Amino acid sequence: MSMWSKGIEYKKREKEKLSKISSKDLPFDVFVKNGELVSWRRSGWCKRAYQFYKKSCNRNFRRNKNLETSVKGNYYRKCYELQYAWI
Q1: pTM above the 0.70 mark?
Q2: Residues 83, 50 contacting (CB under 8 angstroms)
Q3: How many CB atoms lie within 10 A of CB 17?
Q4: What is the pLDDT of residues 33-82, one digit of tens each?
Q5: Distance from the CA of 25 to the CA of which of 11, 35, 53, 80 falls in 20 to 30 A?
Q6: Cα(2)–Cα(18) distance, rounded to whole angstroms?
């Protein structure tokens, strides 16, 4: 097996690991690794859903500064961090 195909296999395995902890609570797919948000889908629907989510998130965040959005695998991201990551 060449180094190149080993790299592809490794990436595939990593992606599977990440997909297992994607959040069902958010309107877009979030992949978290070591507590860091590493990727998310950027489809048109996703962006629209996120705009809606961001509005309600902002409202809640102002009301409760400690609000956290739970992500599978006991990872937590605060609302503003998700917003910051969505660029």
Answers
A1: no
A2: no
A3: 11
A4: 555 555 555 444 455 555 555 555 555 545 544 434 443 333 334 443 44
A5: 11
A6: 25
